[in-house]
Prior knowledge:
alpha+beta, two-stranded antiparallel sheet, 37% helix
Amino acid sequence: MQKKSYNTAGRAALISFLSSHPDEQFSAEELCKALYGDEKRRKSSIYRQLNQLCDDHSVQKFRNPNNLCDVFQYVGEGCDCDEHFHEKCIRCGKVEHLDCHASTEFFSHLLKEHGFQVLCGRSVLYGLCADCRAGGKSHV
């Protein structure tokens, strides 16, 4: 039996915030602070809503390698994140969609030659963005 999702004001605010920042990832604490001004306020509610949104495939959960917490990104209506990789800068945190012909060829190669199907929506390449590389050291 599937749980029913309720369209509460809190859920609507969370979806609105995440969908207005589709190229960014946020921890639950960051979402609490952005929505309620306090990183601890309504945290259990945020986690519950995020889990439901992940189940609905509107939000994707990723593991943040820098501080070992989960981060969340909007992938719902209007996003085609299942069709490409994402790039994440480990210095500034910017997330970009890597939607190019070469990545499609790479997916096809992995499937045809290695029998491995890439789940693009869950795939993130970590490195340094052009702005961070231009602004300083190119190593971490």
